[in-house]
Amino acid sequence: MTEQKHTILAVDDNPDSLSLMNQTLSQHGYVVLIASSGLQALNVLHKVQPDLILLDAVMPEMDGFETCQAMKQIIPDTPIIFMTGLSDSEHIVQGLTQGAVDYLVKPINHDELLARVKVHINNAQQAQISKQALESTGQHLAAINHLGQITWTTAQANTYIKALNNKDLQTLIEWLADAQADDLLELVQEDKNLTLTYLSQQNDGTHLIKFKAADLKLEKQTLKLKLKITRREADVLYWVAKGKTDWEISVILGISERTVNKHLEQIYRKLGVNNRTSATAIAIQALN
Description:
Blueprint: E1 7-11, H1 15-27, E2 31-35, H2 38-45, E3 52-56, H3 64-74, E4 80-84, H4 89-97, E5 102-105, H5 110-136, E6 140-144, E7 150-153, H6 155-162, H7 166-178, E8 184-188, E9 192-201, E10 207-215, H8 216-227, H9 231-241, H10 246-253, H11 257-271, H12 276-287
Parallel strand pairs: 1-2, 1-3, 3-4, 4-5
Antiparallel strand pairs: 6-7, 6-10, 8-9, 9-10
C-alpha cells in the first residue's frame, strides 16, 4: 500500500484495459479515475487534478497525441505516461514530443506499470518542491516550446503566461525563434510591464524563460514623487528609462511625438540634465 492516496487518471477507449488498470492500481492504494475518450478526460481535468495520467495513444476521434497536447495546457506539471500497442519508434517519439514523460507498450505488464507510476509521481513531487523553493526567492521561471506551449513552470510564471493575449503570445513565439541568452522581451499590459529574460535552451528543445512583472502604476507614482515631476512626465520618463523611442512612447501613451518632446524638455529642466541618457540613469536609480 502507498503511504498517500495518489490520484491517477486512466484514459483508454478499451473497457477491458480500463478495468484491469483500475483493479491493479486500486489494489495498491491509488485512487483511479477513468475516461474512455480524450474529450471526457479533458472534462475531468477541469474538475480534478490527478497526480499522474495514463493515456492511450490510439483512440477514435481525438487520439492520445492531440489529447496530451490539450492536457498540457490545463495541467502542465502533471506527468503523462503513454500506453500504446505501437512498437514503431516514430509514435513513441511523437508521444514524448507532445509532453509525455514515459511510455508503456501494450499488453501492459502490471509490475512495470506500478514501478513507472511510482517513479514518476515521486519525480513530480520533487519537481514541485523545487518550484516552490524557486517561487519563494522570486524566481518565476517557465520552459516553453517553439509553439508557446508550457512544458514546465512555476506557479506565478504560469499565471503570467495564461494572462497573455493572442498578440503578446505571437510576439513571444516570434521572439523565441531567435532569442539568445540574456535577451529581453518586454510586454506592456494594462496594469504591469512584463519583462521576459531568455536563459537557455533545454535538452528537449524547450526555452527556459524568467519572468518579472513591474507594477506600472506604482513605478510611475514612484518617479512622480521622488523626482517631483507631473504624472504625465512620469509616464514619459518611465518609458524613456525602458529604452523606448519618442514614437513608441507616443503610441503607448496615445499622444503625439511633439507632445512627448515637450514633456522631455520639462523633465530635463526639472532633473537638471540635457539628454536621455542622464534622465534614464536618474529614473533607474529612483526605481531601484
